[in-house]
Amino acid sequence: MGFSEEHTKWLEYHIQRRSGERRSRLERGHGHGERLFLERVWWSIFGNLDDLHPEYEVADWRGRPYFIDFAWLPGMCKFAMEVKGFGPHVQQTDRIRYRHELDRETFLQILGFRVVSIPYDNLESKPMLSINLLKSLLSPYMAASLRDQRYTRLERETLSIVLRLGKPVRPVDLVKELDINRRTAVLCLKSLCKKGKFRPILSGKETKVNRYEFVRSFTDDWVW
After folding, report:
1. How many domains does the chain divide into?
2. Whole-number Å distance between alpha carbons of 7 and 5
3. Closest-CA residue to 160 (of 125, 207, 112)
4. 143 and 157 both lie in a single domain
């Protein structure tokens, strides 16, 4: 499957999983520059759009929603990628907006993201420069991902979700986030419990499990 077909399929997948402002932001925010980055840089490196999330929502230091152009969440690391044009980010900005942009980048790093800024002009005239720089930056993480076969793709996506939510998850959370059925969600959570990444939480005096708590470990390179 070529880029255009894969991009259409990938974008529709993410749109269908969202609602409200998150969906509206994706439909509005994923424009020419973002598509150009995917086609001329990302696709040239990976040949797929796996683990890449467009217009990814996080909360800034004030608790306000902020949307990253792309979040790459392969499981063992978190990258925030922003396509930046000279006009919107330099010529058409002011001191307050510029300051907030820099503060957001710092806060994203506090949240555990590696922040990567992609110049729009490179995408137009020098895509190979961005390709080579991004390859050099991501290659250690790509190699680590290939070595780490402990988790399935569904398990990695589940781990990314619980890190983003910052609280215990329920099977219904995975059903909504990943568009899977409840049985698959429960099996995935039980598998992660066996691998030591989740701990079941009992409901009151009952023996029924309805939530699962993430177990953090310093040996998890993909988290840090």
Report:
1. 2
2. 5
3. 112
4. no
Which amino acid does the sequence have at 83?
V
pTM for the whole thing? 0.62
Residue 176 and residue 165: Cα distance in Å, rounded?
13
Dig out the tokens for 199 from the structure.
Answer: 């701990």
Q: What is the number of alpha carbons within 13 Å of residue 163 lying toward its C-beta?
A: 22
Q: Write down the pLDDT at residue 218.
A: 40
| Residue 146, pLDDT score | 46
Q: Are 116 and 79 in contact (CB under 8 A)?
A: yes
Distance (Å, whole) CA 220 – CA 144? 11
Residue 55: what pLDDT?
Answer: 94
- Which H or E run includes 84? strand 79-84
| CA-based radius of gyration for the chain | 19
Residues 114 and 137 in one domain: yes
Closest residue by Cα to residue 215 from 205, 201, 202:
201
Q: From the first residue on, what is the mean pLDDT of each consecutive set of 10 residues in the chain (224 residues)?
A: 89 92 90 94 89 91 88 85 74 75 88 92 92 85 58 84 81 91 94 90 75 70 46
85 contacts 120 by C-beta, under 8 angstroms = yes
Domain CATH code at residue 171: 1.10.10.10
Q: What is the pLDDT of residue 92?
A: 62
User: Could you tell me the strand order of the sheet in which 52-59 lies?
Assistant: 52-59, 65-72, 79-84, 114-119
Distance of alpha carbon 123 from alpha carbon 125, whole angstroms = 6
Angle, in degrees to the nearest 10, between helices 153-165 and 182-194:
90
Structure tokens at 106: 């710092």
